[in-house]
Amino acid sequence: MTVGEKQAETGTPPEVLDGPFSTRQLLRIDEALRLADQGTGLVFSVYVGGLDEPIRAHAQRLHRQLADPDRSVLIAVSPNQRQLEIVTGRHARKRIPDTYAKLAALSMVAAFGGGDLAGGIIIGLDQLASHAGKA
């Protein structure tokens, strides 16, 4: 019996994952990350969780911990704090200037405001990858 069949039979919701995303949403985000990485040659990462003050400095610390920070782009989202930071490494910034990162952030914030956290992240990844272009 699938989770959906069990839910239909018992009227109970499926088990909740530990986090803000369903399995389907996680798979969509993972696919968007894979496509962004493959399409650009850059390395995209997403962090969702609390960010310490100052927010930008915390996001930059997270970015520096990535395997290849110079070629990496980090999207850091703290839904509870209503904060979003996009951090680009030295090489990535040449292909995604701050202006384009801000445009992607605006699109993401619009989706977040509509209650679509996963969709906002996917939109942001797509826009950032589009701006970066092919490697």
From TrEMBL:
Transmembrane segments: 103-125
A Pfam family that the UniProt record links to this protein: DUF5130
InterPro entries membership: DUF5130
Key words of the record: Membrane, Transmembrane, Transmembrane helix
Top-level taxonomic group: Bacteria
UniProt-recorded name of the protein: DUF5130 family protein
